[in-house]
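TASK: fixed-backbone design
INPUT:
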C-alpha cells in the first residue's frame, strides 16, 4: 500500500519536472529553437492545427527560423497567425516560405525571460508540493484507519518529504541551467 503511494507520488513529481522542461523549451535563449513556434496553431481547413503539422519548421542559423508549408496556399494564413501570436518578430514571406529573423536579445529581454523561467520553476515546485500533500493525506488516512502504526506513518511521511526535497532540488538545477543558457550571449 505504501509502495503504491510512493511510486504514484514519484511518478507525478517526475511529470511536473517534464512539464516544466517542456515549458522551458518555449523560452528564447541566445540561440533560437523551433520550440518558439510550437504553441502556434494555424487554421487548416477549419481546424486549429499545430504549425509543425502543416509545414516544415527548421532553424537556419542562431537567429533565423524558416517555415516551409506543405501547401503553398497556406503561406498567407501562417504569416497572419504568426503576426497574431506576438512572438517578437514579423514574418517575412518570400512566396515560397516564411523566414523569422530574431534580433539579438537585449539585457532587458534576457532578464524578462529569466523571470518567466523562474515563474515556470515555481509552478513546478507548487505542483510537487501538491503531490506531497496528497501523498501525506493518504498516509494519514491509513494511520487513522489503523492500517498503519504511528511509527510506520512517521517513516512514510519522512520518505515523502525526502522525495519532495529531491525533486525540488532537480527543479532548482534545471532552472539554474536554463538561466545560464538564457544569459549566455
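OUTPUT:
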Amino acid at each position: 500500500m505504501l509502495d503504491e503511494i510512493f511510486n504514484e507520488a514519484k511518478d507525478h513529481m517526475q511529470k511536473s519536472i517534464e512539464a516544466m522542461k517542456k515549458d522551458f523549451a518555449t523560452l528564447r535563449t541566445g540561440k533560437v529553437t523551433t520550440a518558439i513556434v510550437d504553441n502556434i496553431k494555424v487554421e487548416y481547413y477549419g481546424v486549429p492545427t499545430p504549425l509543425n503539422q502543416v509545414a516544415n519548421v527548421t532553424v537556419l542559423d542562431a537567429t533565423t527560423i524558416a517555415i516551409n508549408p506543405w501547401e503553398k496556399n497556406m503561406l498567407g494564413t501562417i504569416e497572419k497567425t504568426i503576426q497574431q501570436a506576438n512572438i517578437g518578430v514579423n514574418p517575412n514571406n518570400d512566396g515560397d516560405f516564411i523566414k523569422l529573423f530574431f534580433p539579438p536579445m537585449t539585457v532587458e529581454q534576457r532578464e524578462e525571460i529569466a523571470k518567466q523561467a523562474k515563474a515556470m520553476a515555481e509552478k513546478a515546485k507548487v505542483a510537487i508540493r501538491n503531490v506531497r500533500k496528497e501523498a501525506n493525506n493518504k498516509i494519514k488516512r491509513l494511520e487513522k484507519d489503523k492500517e498503519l502504526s504511528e511509527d510506520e506513518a512517521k517513516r512514510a511521511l519522512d520518505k515523502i518529504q525526502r522525495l519532495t526535497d529531491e525533486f525540488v532540488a532537480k527543479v532548482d538545477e534545471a532552472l539554474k541551467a536554463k538561466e545560464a543558457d538564457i544569459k549566455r550571449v
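COMMENT: Strands lie at 41-44, 47-50, 55-61, 64-69, 91-93, 98-101.
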